[in-house]
Specification:
The complex is a heterodimer of chains A (274) and B (208). Chain A is α/β, with parallel strands linked by helices and 274 residues long. Chain A contains ten helices and twelve strands. Chain A has a single domain, classed as Alpha-Beta Barrel (TIM Barrel). The longest helix of chain A has 14 residues, at 62-75. Chain A starts with 7 loop residues before the first strand and ends in a 24-residue tail after the last helix. Chain B is of the alpha/beta class and 208 residues long. The chains are: A alpha/beta (274), B alpha/beta (208). Chains A and B meet through helix 2, helix 3 and helix 5 of A and helix 1, strand 8, strand 9 and helix 6 of B.
Chain lengths: 274, 208
């Protein structure tokens, strides 16, 4: 199976109050700076996709975030997935107009699962990524519970059952994070990644806890993830996404080859279509 | 040269516009038949649900305008993803929908096309194998022929001559078609970095 398609390396940008931040256990730790610099850099070094997630406490920074998405989409010639505070189709339209190729749902879907079906019917399943933040909970049948609102509000839903439900509602992809592993440099929670990857037939992207390139390979080999995402590790490492790709390729995983690509930013008229 | 992106309300035209800018074009957005007919070159993008897209194309008058511009006047057109699938006669996605009918055949779910094991949607980068005259759109070594795919449905056509490229995802799938002045891809050149940029430039230079 793994031979038939290239595994994706995904860079995640977390935007908190208008700035890109690093996080640990879902709490912002420090500012990294401009999202644009980060994306130019990822784009140049053949990252396969970019996820940008708005993780502020409330919706006060909405306009600034939309501007960031719009700016990113002009520079980003790989698929751009945008998530955060999506509770209705209006917000999906706002993000896709700003240049998102896919949108990521989390709390909005936990609160009202039918939202997944509504977006899939309008934009297609391939547009709907459901982000699942899980935490170990021995009372749940699978041992994990899905948690909403930036890892703060337990949903009472079993993580595996929720994953199966989102697939039946039309989700096209699952982004999977384990809260205690986030920023903890232990690698992914491979038990969780394998549990969900084996339970569903749509692509699963593992995220949270990557501290070295071995962790990416483990996510695919041991976790059966289709794509592997990381955030913190990419920020302060020179040529990091290129090195990550080369490491994965050397480990025998099929990945897209690295090609140096300098993004040309042509002059263009200031023109707002919508 | 006037390049128009046909906006029939399906998905993300912003990405396509950005990629065309980066490739040196200055695209306009066509939401009405007049703008379509005034363009020298057309891009029919599309992500999203087939039924809604087919209906919007028909009721907006864009469907007839495209017929006129591309089929009768021979304007080059680049179809992308759903924009390729819409070329078929029928789209079998949550019911049956009428496509443009420029190519014989149906658009069916990947599971109905024999993809039994692999994950659906087919999402990620895959190698594209061009054939025949379509090679002009795919210059360079093999690593320059990986493109980003993101789809659950696939074109099944008896018109083998129109198939310009294939990609293997458990089964060989139609990755691109070339028919008259229409070139269309199942993958997303606008999201395929430099490989996609090269393909878009090749389309802009194409004089069929």
């Amino acid at each position: 199976m793994s031979r038939i398609q290239k595994h994706r390396l995904i860079a995640t940008l977390l935007v908190f109050n208008g700035d890109v931040v690093q996080t640990r256990r879902f709490r912002p730790t420090n500012n990294v700076g401009s999202a644009f610099t980060a994306v130019d850099f990822f784009n140049t070094w053949t990252v396969d996709e970019i996820f940008v997630l708005e993780i502020s406490k409330d919706d006060a920074h909405r306009v600034r975030f939309e501007e960031i998405v719009e700016g990113l989409s002009r520079r980003c010639f790989v698929p751009l997935t945008v998530g955060g505070k999506i509770r209705d189709l209006d917000r999906v339209r706002t993000y896709t107009r700003a240049g998102a190729d896919k949108i990521a749902l989390n709390t909005g879907a936990l609160e009202r699962p039918a939202l997944i079906r509504e977006i899939a019917a309008q934009f297609g399943s391939q547009c709907v990524v459901v982000s699942i933040d899980a935490r170990r909970n021995a009372d749940m049948p699978s041992g994990y519970e899905a948690v909403g609102d930036r890892g703060r509000v337990p949903s009472g839903r079993d993580a595996r059952a929720w994953a199966e439900e989102v697939v039946s509602l039309g989700a096209g992809e699952i982004l999977l994070n384990e809260i205690e592993h986030d920023g903890d440099k232990r690698g992914y929670d491979l038990d969780l990644v394998r549990l969900i990857s084996d339970a569903v037939s749509i692509p699963v992207v593992a995220m949270g806890g990557v501290a070295n390139w071995d962790h990416l390979v483990d996510g695919v080999r041991q976790g059966h993830a289709h794509g592997v995402a990381a955030g913190n590790i990419f920020h302060y490492t020179e040529h990091s996404t290129k090195k990550a790709k080369e490491f994965m390729a050397a480990a025998g995983l099929p990945v897209r080859g690295t090609t140096f690509y300098k993004v040309a930013m042509p002059r263009r008229p200031a023109y707002r279509p919508f | 040269m006037k390049v128009a992106i046909v906006d029939y309300g399906a998905g993300n035209i912003e990405s396509v516009r950005n990629a065309l800018f980066a490739a040196g074009a200055e695209p306009v957005i066509a939401r009405d038949p007049e703008t379509v007919l005034a363009a020298d070159r057309l891009v029919l993008p599309g992500v999203g649900a087939a039924g809604a897209a087919a209906e919007r194309l028909a009721v907006s008058g864009l469907r007839d305008a495209l017929e006129d511009a591309v089929r009768r006047r021979g304007r080059p057109m680049l179809g992308i993803c759903l924009g390729m699938e819409l070329l078929a006669e029928r789209l079998l996605e949550f019911g049956e929908h009428r496509g443009l009918g420029w190519l014989p055949g149906d658009v069916v779910h990947l599971r109905d096309a024999g993809v039994a094991q692999a994950r659906v949607p087919h999402m990620g980068w895959n190698l594209v194998e061009p054939q025949g005259a379509a090679a002009r759109f795919f210059q360079g070594p093999e690593r320059m022929r990986t493109f980003y795919f993101c789809h659950s449905y696939t074109l099944v056509t008896p018109a083998g001559a129109a198939v310009a490229a294939r990609a293997t995802y458990e089964k060989p799938l139609v990755a691109a078609v070339l028919d008259g002045t229409v070139f269309a891809t199942q993958f997303h050149p606008e999201k395929s970095q430099i490989n996609g940029q090269n393909l878009i430039r090749a389309f802009l230079d194409w004089a069929p």
